[in-house]
Every structure is written in structure tokens, then in C-alpha cells.
Structure prediction request, 353 residues.
Amino acid sequence: MLTALTLIAGLALLIIGAEMLVKGASRVAAGFGISPLVIGLTVVAFGTSSPEMAISVSSAWKGEADIAVGNVVGSNIFNVLFILGLSALITPLLVSKQLVKVDVPLMIAASLLAFLFAMDGRIAFWEGGVLFAGVIGYCIFAVRLGKATGETGEDIEGGGHWAKDIGLILVGLVLLVMGSQWLVSAAVTIATAMGVSELVIGLTIVAAGTSMPEVATSVTAAIRGQRDIAVGNVVGSNLFNILAVLGLTALVAPAGLPVSDAAIRFDFPVMMAVAVACLPIFFVGYTIQRWEGALFLGYYVAYTVYLVFAATEHDALPVFSQAMMWFVVPLTVITLGVVLARELKARRSRQGT
Prediction:
């Protein structure tokens, strides 16, 4: 009963904290003339990723490397498939051209770099330093690019005094961190009692728990009509998770950050595939339609089912794996290819006229 109450209380704090963070960060950044997209990619994304930072760093410091790595990889998969999927089901999401041309390719490159660093079974201290330096460069680049495009935050609701808005940000972040810690602590207690491995806990329960701020933030932003923040929050959070969270975790972990064979063989490739899948979906009409959101959600369910089957060595695992590999995945690739080809043909026709 106490564990269940802790779980519910943690979720409530996450939702309240995310609402306060969206309001405060949007208004403060808009006051400095920063565009909604850059706000979502930096201020909001990094703020909502603070639970991942706290959990991964503390886990690595205590020698729980599988939870630290699984948290980052699982959060990135969860962010795209679950959060964007759910947000798009609520309302079709607009995608900025900057995301397609700049930020998503950077997310793919960062995912590939992390995978290359992890392939030898360990992310070394210097490799963590390279990743962490990347997030500093990205922040500077994102702000400068936003100013160069001339976009502003004038369409964001104003009205608050700057001190009040900063207070909203600080209180919101505190509630987010507290809520995620309560939720993750309760969830890990339940999962451990069920005999689930640390890697699976990190990839599912901890990843979903620490990503609840992103869920609440993106869904809230979508409902409030701030759809640039809804999408930018996910892409920015994924970049922050790889570069800042994974980088700093490798820096503080004794002798670098160990990475399990299971994560290298399956979960890192899934994370990269999910990042790559964003490009064709974002590119077509620069929107994420409801059916594409449903597709994302379906794949997250399939991914979670696979992890559960693999962890429990279920008899259905071979059949499920073959069905995904030889039917579902090829059918999805063909569908996206046809949609992308039609979009390219339509754009060439418009340019010709």
C-alpha cells in the first residue's frame, strides 16, 4: 500500500512540476526573444531530463551500471515512440524545418557516436568527456541558430513578472526531481520483488518513470497549442540524455561506464533505429499525423513485450521475434517509403508549377 501511494504521489508531482516548468521557462525565454522551438530544445528539454541525470549519475556512482545505461537508452526510445505517439494522438504535431534539417540529424549522429563508444563494452572517461562537450556546443549552436532565423517567442502567452516565472521554473524542477525519485523508487521496489533484471528495470520502469516529466510537458504543450515545444522537447531531451547524461555518467563512474552485451546487441540499435525513423515521418508534410502517432505507440508496446518475453524466457519469444522481423518491420518500412516518395513527388510538382 505504501509503495503504491508513493508511486501515485510521485506521478502527481511530475504532472504539477511539468506544468509549472512549461509556463515559467516559456515566458522567461520568450522575454529574451528566444523562439518556442529553441525553448523546447534547450530550456524545457534539459529541465525535464534532470531526473535522468540524477538517476543515471547516482546509479553509476553506486556501481549499478545497467540501470544507468538502461535509463538513458530506454528513455530515448520511450520519448520518441511513447511521448510523440501519445502527443500526436491528442493533436497532429507541427514539425519545424530546423528539426528535420538540423536537430534530428544531430540526434542520429549522437546516437551513433554513443553506440560506437559502447561497442567495446565500456564508455571510457575521455569518451564521456567528448559527449559532455557536445552538449555545450549544441546549446550555443541552438541559441545562435534561433536568433539567426529571426524567430521570436511572441506567440507564447505572457503576463508574469520575471521573478515569478523564475520561481515557477525552480519549484517545477524541484517537484520534477522529487516526483521522479518517488516514482522510480516505488517502481524498482515492485520490479525487484518480481525478479526482473537491472537492465530491464532501467530500460522500462526507470526509463518510463524518469521520462514522465517529458510526457507531462509534451502533452501539456500540445494541449496548450505550443506544438513546437512538444516536439522540440523530445528531440532536445534525447540529445541531452546522450550527450549530457551519458557523458557525465561516464565521467563520474569508477573506471568508465560498463555497457552490457545485451544493450549493445539490441537496445542501442533500437535507439538508433527510432532516431532514424523520425526523419521520414517528420519530413512528410512537416507534421506528425495521428496514424503515425499510433504507429509509434504500437512499436513501443511491441518493444516492451519483447523485453518482458526475453526477461522471462517466454515460449512465445521466437514466434514474436520472427513476426516483428519478417512482417511488421518490413511492412512499416514499405509504408513509410511509399508515403515519402509521394511527398517528394508532390513537392517536385509544386516547384515545377
